[in-house]
User: Fold this.
Amino acid sequence: MNIKPGQKYHHFKGYTMEIITLARHSETKEEMVVYKHLDDNTIWVRPRKMFEEKLDKNKYPNATQEYRFELIKENM
Assistant:
C-alpha cells in the first residue's frame, strides 16, 4: 500500500478513517499509521503491518472486504 496523509480508508467493520501521517515507534522503529476516526474525530495509531493485513476470514467469515482497511477510491 502507498499510504499517504489525507487518504481515506474504509475499515471492514464499517468505519471511515483519514490518514494523518506515518510515524515510527521510538523503541522498536516499527512503522506506524496515525489516523483519525471520522465518525467521532478520535486519533488512533496502528502498526503499518497490521493496517495493511488481509482479514482472517475464519475469524470474520461475514466480512466483505479482503483487507482490514481498504482505500476509498475517490482519493486516488
Observations:
- Residues 48-51 form the longest helix (4 residues).
- Helices lie at 48-51.
- The radius of gyration is 13 Å.
- Residues 8 and 74 are 9 Å apart (CA to CA).
